[in-house]
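The freezer alarm interrupted the setup, so I double-checked each line after restarting. Inputs confirmed:
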Amino acid sequence: MKSSADMITPDYLRNKLKLKSLEVRQSFSEKFPEVNRFLTEKGIDLGKIREHSAKIIGAGALTGTLLFTPPGNIKDLPPLSEIIASIKGLIKEGSIDLPQKFLIDLLKGILPERTRPLTESEEKKIEQVFEKVIGVKTKADLEGEHLNTTYGYIGAEQHLARYPGDNIYNHPKIPSGDEGIAPGLGAWGYFSQSRENLTKSLEETEKWYAVVQTLYLPDWNKRAKYLREWYKYRKVLVVNTDNGNAVVAAIADSGPAAWTGRHFGGSPEVMEYLGGSKYKKGPVLVFFVDDPENKVPLGPVDYNKTNLTELSLTQI
Amino acid sequence: MSILFFDRLLVLDEVDKEIKTKAKTAEEREELWRLVDEIIHHKIMGCVLDKLPEKSRPEFLEKFQKAPYDEGLFKFLTEKVGEDIEEFLKTEIAKLKSEILHEIKGK
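Predicted 3D structure, all chains:
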């Protein structure tokens, strides 16, 4: 016999939420007709206010004129040339024995106190820092595509089913605190149509996957077909801004919902590497990996082992 | 800054968990997420406007439509309302979470 929880189907949920949505819309328009009129005149649907906001932010970020009002949440940033000079100086002095600490200190000088979409100027500086310190070339804006935010909170996700019949018993797990396997599929469905066709590369893609909010991109509905292909398994560099741990991940799902307090998601392996088995949520930077020849491998970036003195630092 | 000025107050993980358990495809999940989003926006704006003196509403709406992401709106609202609007909204969001859970769990 089915329990009441089993009887709740996606259709049931949809109908319940649709009814609730209609109810709150109607109640709002009855209670505040003048507000409804004002918003309609401005062409704003309150239900879709997130898209309207993302459009404004997108336009601001492109021109670099975005103003953030909370005092103390914007810094007088050092110019890019100064940041590069400071990296060069420290390398000359041989004082970078702890690249992760060095990275955290550099980021502290650039990032605002609280997570928020960054300005173009902030993102340009971070791209340089990533390339010079971590050794991975990244872009906040790649081929004209940009995430709604590059600085936000990441949350723990579950493993994804890789092929029909895949389950938690035959799926690799992390030693402790594993989140299990998601009941539904990722945004791009199965990674392979059968276990036999699951290549090593696809296994790695699921192991090191990231989740980004493609559904909230302002032009997602207009360019869904192109964007779906563009984002599929797109490589991103995810950096924990608290401890400097960095991992290259592949985008394999969309989300999380905006009302969860998170902006990105990471597979159990990604999260474990970023912050350990108990790490479930934390601030991160997420930038596209600029890797046209597909040479950057997925997984942890052990830049502690990188000999920084051998990196070529080019003044721009 | 958030995408919407009240975003950082929204932590409805339990609602998300219910949706993820039931939705089989990403499309289904996203549709349900959007419906919850619509409910939240109307409810929160309703709570804000309820509290706000009528004469301050046009100014708030002008500011809101120009920069819905602007956390400075909290300061504006707190000044006009005369109480900490963030604390008030946190309480209202907790109520809303229970309401949505009640709806979707079928109780």
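Quick read of the result. Residues 81-310 of chain A form a domain with the Barwin-like endoglucanases fold (CATH 2.40.40.10).
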